[in-house]
Amino acid sequence: MPTETNGLCPCGSQKEYRDCCGRFLEKKALPPTAEALMRSRYTAYVKGDLDYLVETDFHEVDREATKAWMQSATFYRLEILKVYRGKALDKKGRIEFKAWYRDEEGEERIHHELSDFEKYKGRWYYSGGLAAT
Question: Which CATH number fits domain 17-131: 3.10.450.50, 3.30.390.10, 3.40.50.1360, 3.30.565.10?
Fold first, then answer.
């Protein structure tokens, strides 16, 4: 569980962690938009918060596979390319993003994805994604 309460948020928002994704990972608030959820999930990868990733996924998660990928990658930059819906009053959203990371060998990689999000009972969830080219 993240304990850092100061410094800039890893999601790239240029906001303080405690005022950005920290409040979601620490269960003080729910992300109001699909983009806020996406950024907080990225931050969970950075911080190794597997429980947050599991609880914000609409589908059952393979915890061991997710944990292994999270531990083999060092994420260091997020770029939101396009937001398609996913505002507070929407039921669905889609976000195109790139996440930069280094693999176990230290090689730089980019994960480029179109992620889908659904709002269920007032809460946003990640519902799937497609690798983008």
Answer: 3.10.450.50
